[in-house]
Amino acid sequence: MARYDSDAHEPPLVGRPKTQSSRTTRTPFGPGIELGRLFGVRIFADYSLLIIMALVTVNIGAGVLPVWHPNWSPLLTWAVAATAAVLFFGSILLHELSHALVGRKVGIPISGITLFMFGGVAQMEKEPDRPRAEFLMAIVGPLTSIGIGIVASLIGAWSARNAVAMSGNEFDALPRIGPVGTLMLWLGPINILIGLFNMVPGFPLDGGRVLRSILWWATGSFRKATRWASLAGQAVAWTLITGGVFMAFGFYVPVFGTGVVQGLWLILIGWFLSRAARTSYEQVVIHQALENVPVSRLMLSRLDFVPPEMTVSELIQSRLMHSDQRCFPVLSDGRLEGLVCIEDVRKVPEQRWNDTQVREIMTPTAALLTLEANAESGEAMRALARRDVDQIPVVENGRLIGLVRRQDIVKWLGLHARGPQQV
Fold it and tell me: Domain count of the chain?
């Protein structure tokens, strides 16, 4: 299942609970790894991808290929099955990359693409600002999958032409088709099905975003369109869940078939889609509530700070033990030198507390994301989510004037934001 989200992912900076390698990172779904870049777009793989790739490989190697090619050796069977799994997720990557490239053309930057157990997600740095941009970016993904499916099917049919001519019909020709033709004949229909499934009008699937763009154009209200598209997404999700329950109890469901494993998988997909639909609408409500609210209204301006020469022992005794602050600005002559947080202290062995200075463990200003006082709180909320941190310094002319914290934004939303149920 391919879709795209407005939760962008960027490298971790200050406030991370543990040190990670330069390749290991955190995806929107948990720990993962960065695979590289394509056309300037960062590609991530969530570790859950390993699970689904193994399942796809086993399904093809133990289920499909023994029926199609009973005379193949085990080595050839499993080599083709593993290749099919790689090609499958390669086609998902192309689907998501099409979103990213079109998004770039219509002014919606995509910071990365994550492959995970349900398919792929392209992470937008902001929501579209007009219906046309939303429509173009959404529709290109399914069209790409369908295009891949058609091309693969044509290649497979061309590769199988001699086998069909010798056997007289397609079914008897299957054992005579080579590995390349077999891969294409499997990959083609799968991609066509992916393209059609993603056109189901359930947000945040591509079809749901196409629906939102149409509703947005018709009503002129982005929030109302998102609400209705989200409800459509939840309706689709509960349809999948219901179908999965029937399948698990042995009933046949058109298109999906029957079986306990297939039913449980459909239930899991429905649950994920329902959760994503609700979360996507809640994000819109939150971001609209924070529009035109400068961070200066929400930031914590009365701050305890520490000098860079203070020892870790002094930091603990004079600050951490007597304040609810978890992160302290490090100032020198009134200028921000960095931030030091509880997580930084935890990395220092207790026997070195008296000999280690704050400057040795702080995150320097050059590695920090900072905001200006007139920045919108919505921008701060997105930055907190992207960086996976709890606070961001607010700086003017190199001087710290406050910290905007996740907890302060949540508190403000609790007092001012309209509930998600309201349109």
Answer: 2
